[in-house]
Specification:
Pathway: Carbohydrate biosynthesis. Its EC number is 3.1.3.11. InterPro entries: FBPase_C_dom, FBPase_class-1, FBPase_N, FBPtase. This protein has eight helices and 17 strands. The protein is an alpha+beta fold. Strands 4-3-5-6-7-8-9-10 form an eight-stranded mixed β-sheet, sandwiched between helices. It has a five-stranded mixed β-sheet with strand order 12-11-13-17-15, sandwiched between helices. Helix 2 runs antiparallel to helix 3. The radius of gyration is 19 Å and the shape is globular. The relative contact order is 0.14.
Length: about 325
């Protein structure tokens, strides 16, 4: 192992942050490393396929959804720094059995789990908030994303990466064969301009007319009003699409559609929208619901609230807002 590269534990130790937050980040990173092993085991570990259970989102859970949710819940609630947790896979918040914690942790334990059976990229997304009480209820979790003190995701792909912000920029760490997180991407920044967009084109007929117009203009390429050719990418896992944007720019769009008109969007504010918005803004991008409304300014109304999402390179998000 290269000796001159910063390890995550050293980076965390050097943070200008309370010891409790450092503990939370250390536990989260260690659990993500353990999840990476389970994901890599796949069929050999008996971890593929459906679990036979339905979560609070009325979605069929994969075996790995259940396994990874239990891993994160157990590890975090065992930490004296954690007052409680909430997960996309659980109906209610889970207070810690002790009464000493200062932090609330929310997570999507396995984002993109529909990809797992085809050996495509998946990840874990984590948001950290301060707790006003050592015995939190759901109301204590109802904080806007600007209150986050940390956000991170782990991406399980050809390499396992952990991307982290504590409000002072974004850094990326790669999991070594020795099991150490090593700093490989310092000061991650999103380019303001792009020629890439990520959206599920199969839903085009269900989008509002302004969204259809915007996408239509992109597809016209250099012969259209945008005057340049665009490429489309879609991994079907928000964590992977956002990672690509952090690495090389682009926009990720998941707009409202007419199939379920009473729902404002599909993605979850607390487990996906807020942590990813924090990371994107810290990397110099924009994270909005519609090109205008910042995700981080939304006052949550309930634990499993859904929102539309438009995030990524600033100039392209502005163009999306202007349609």
């Amino acid at each position: 192992m290269t000796a001159d590269r910063t390890r995550l534990d050293a980076h965390i130790a050097a943070l200008d942050a309370p010891d409790g937050l450092k503990t939370v980040l250390t536990v989260a990173a260690a659990t993500c490393a353990d999840i990476s092993k389970v994901v890599a085991g796949g069929a050999l570990a008996g971890a593929l396929g459906a679990s036979g259970q339905i979560n609070v989102q009325d979605e069929e859970q994969k075996k790995l959804d259940v396994m990874t949710n239990e891993m994160l819940t157990d590890a975090l609630l065992a930490s004296p720094a954690v007052a409680g947790v909430a997960s996309e896979e659980m109906d209610e918040v889970q207070p810690a059995p002790h009464s000493t914690g200062d932090y609330l942790v929310l997570f999507d334990p396995l984002d993109g789990s529909s990809n797992i059976d085809i050996n495509a990229m998946v990840g874990t997304i984590i948001s950290v908030l301060k707790s006003a009480t050592p015995a939190p209820t759901e109301a204590d979790f109802m904080q806007p994303g600007r209150n986050q003190v940390a956000a991170l995701y782990a991406l399980y792909g050809p390499q396992t990466m952990l991307v982290l912000t504590t409000g002072a920029g974004v850094k990326g760490f790669t999991l070594s064969n020795d099991g150490d997180w090593i700093l490989t991407h310092d000061d991650i920044a999103i380019s303001p301009d792009t020629k890439e967009f990520a959206i599920n084109m199969s839903n085009l007929r269900h989008w509002s007319q302004p969204v259809q117009t915007y996408i239509g203009d992109l597809l016209k390429g250099d012969e259209g009003p945008r005057g340049k050719n665009f490429n489309m990418r879609w991994v079907a896992a928000m964590v992977a699409d956002v990672h690509r944007i952090l690495m090389r720019g682009g926009v990720f769009l998941y707009p409202w559609d007419s199939r379920e008109p009473t729902k404002p969007g599909k993605l979850r504010l607390m487990y996906e929208g807020n942590p990813m918005a924090f990371l994107v803004e810290q990397a110099g991008g924009k994270a909005t619901t519609d090109g205008v409304q910042p995700i981080l300014d939304i006052q949550p109304e309930h634990l499993h609230q859904r929102i539309p999402v438009a995030l990524g390179s600033t100039n392209e998000i502005d163009a999306y807002a202007g349609v």
